Amino acid sequence: MNDLSIFFQWYGILLILGLSVYPITAFLFSSFFDQGYIFSKVIAVLIISYLMFLFGTLHIFPFSQLSLSVLLIMLFVVNIFIFKRTKKNILNKSSVLLIIVEELLFFISLAIWTYIRAHEPSINGLEKFMDYGFINSILRSEYFPPTDIWFPPFPINYYYFGHLITAVLTKLSSLPSQYTYNLMVATLFAFTFVGSFSIGYNLIKSLKFSKTR
Known about the structure:
Blueprint: H1 2-20, H2 22-28, H3 39-57, H4 65-90, H5 96-119, H6 128-139, H7 161-173, H8 177-212
Helix pairs in contact: 1-3, 2-3, 2-4, 3-7, 5-8, 6-7, 7-8
């Protein structure tokens, strides 16, 4: 039951993030039959992470759950404004079923890879040890760049935005990093799987639509 609660806590954060930026995603992907729904999760994670990176580097906001919550509320307000301006285009009934299918595919693919990682959760091989160390270093940092785990107190002299994304989701979900590292691996698989489905579906659908015209 504890494993299930951890999984649903992580999935819930991704669902909230995706819904919070769905209006701007639907606007950007207006030519897609599914309005780019599944990419709303990716866009939300990227925007929140980049804003935290920017404000944290400029020492405007400390890297904390409160700062991330404020950024998320700001993003949500912006998307409410976009929704009010474009709700006729966003509320497309023909895409509702497809959106539900994509969300189910994301949930299933995330659950499957989480199950696989649950049976082999060890963080070793390739750059995994370094990745895990960077994530924990970021989580301990108040501002950026974070401290180099091998050469403190000097900052990390390496690109770490991907690690920051995991740290951001870790902060938002309030889960320990030993769980979120593996959950992020499963999330990358789910993003890749459902993103490929969305692109493939829209390409095939657009080809069929162009032939019938």
